[in-house]
Write a structure and sequence with these properties.
The protein is mainly α and about 70 residues long. The chain has a domain at about 40-73. Helices cover about 65% and strands about 0% of the residues. The chain has helices at about 15-45, 50-55, 60-70. Helix 1 runs antiparallel to helix 3 (about 60-70). The longest helix is centred in the middle third of the chain and has 30 residues, at about 15-45. The chain is elongated. The model has no long low-confidence stretch (mean pLDDT about 85).
Length: about 70
Amino acid sequence: MAFFSDTRAADARPAFFSTMTNSVMAVLAKFADAQNCTRTVQALQNRSDRELADIGIAREDIVRHVYNDIYNV
């Protein structure tokens, strides 16, 4: 009689390459998000005060508005 189990040991660790790849991908994703935010800030700063008022943002609150989701400013 043979015994077969398809479960992993509780202390099994992912391979080093897999862990490193996930870390690099996370850093690249954060870099892409930061670039996105920078573009958004620049686009909003290029708008007139009237256009900003129409969307409900004061000029001094642009950075706070853009980065609020990331840093809870």
